[in-house]
Amino acid sequence: MNPNEIKNQVLTENTAQGVLNHLKALESNRARMQTRWIWELLQNARDTSPDDGQRLVASVKYEQGELIFQHNGAKFKIKEIAHLIYHGSTKFEDEETIGQYGSGFLTTHLLSPTIDVSGQLEDGKFFKFCLTREIGSVKELSESMDRAWENFNDSQSEIPPSDFTTQFRYPVADDAADAVAEGLEMLKRCAPFVIVFNQEFSKIDITTPDEKISFKIVEPPHLQEDGLQEITVEESESRTLTTYISAKGEKTSVAVPLSTDDDRTCLPVEDVPRLFLGFPLIGTDNFSFPAASIALNSHQRKIAMACI
């Protein structure tokens, strides 16, 4: 083994040790952490919003013990695939992202230790590989990372695996089925606010054996003279249109739904977290009104999550 091979092996083992420690910590806090999966996946989609003028569409589908999350965000850079496989502490976040493929993404492994990943690269090629993170030894996890990297390279082709640029497929473990159901139910309640606070999204689709629901912005947001913004969101299942009034500061936004009568009064908000860091901070239901802030950095976000 030459010096470069030794260096790469050591780096992979060090990264595997960090990932393994994080997976063990997640498992020990499964009851508190496992319902965060949907927000981590939507955050990933938001951080990769299309750069070609398209509006972002995210889809989550749960059928026959399998969860499929897809979006049409920006195509993958090779470096992003490397970060996804060899998760470590070298992922730099820019000010426009909330944090992609970081420790939060590892939370989704509470649904399943294996994820089938597919998508499209910047050069137009498509790929598909399996990402496996079992709680075992550092050696096993290191080998799994290298195997995923090899499979990624071998899989590149001209044949698209789906109509989306990114797809994650989870064979949901039996002990995670309740977490999936709870996450989907929370998404149905919070999706309108997610779209209002994250206008990169034009639509969020939810599909289960029992229903198919879409939440979408039906027209461009209207900016009033006083600086307030009106955003109308349609829910497909009930075919209802709800208009939200939003006040946006430099790093904080507030939004409330309006009544449909001539008085245009603010409606009460029920069963929805009131604080959003892009996405809901669970446990903040007693705050006065829904507000979003991007002022917290990733370390402060982890502290906030731990407190709730």
Polypeptide structure, described:
This protein is α+β, with helices and mostly antiparallel strands and 308 residues long. The chain has two domains: 3-178, 2-Layer Sandwich (Heat Shock Protein 90), CATH 3.30.565; 189-307, no CATH class. The protein contains eight helices and 14 strands. The protein has helices spanning 3-28, 30-33, 37-47, 78-85, 103-106, 138-155, 177-197, 298-307; strands at 56-63, 66-71, 114-120, 126-132, 166-171, 201-207, 212-217, 222-223, 229-235, 240-248, 252-257, 275-277, 279-280, 291-293. α1 packs across α6. The longest helix has 26 residues, at 3-28.
The overall strand count is 14
How far apart the termini lie comes to 48 Å
Q: Give the CATH architecture of the largest domain.
A: 2-Layer Sandwich
Structural class: alpha+beta
How helix-rich are the residues, as a percent range? 25-40%
CATH topology assignment of the largest domain: Heat Shock Protein 90
Alpha-carbon Rg, integer = 20 Å
Number of helices: 8
Identify the CATH class of the largest domain: Alpha Beta
Number of domains: 2
Globally, the shape reads elongated
The major beta sheet can be summarized as: 14 strands, mixed
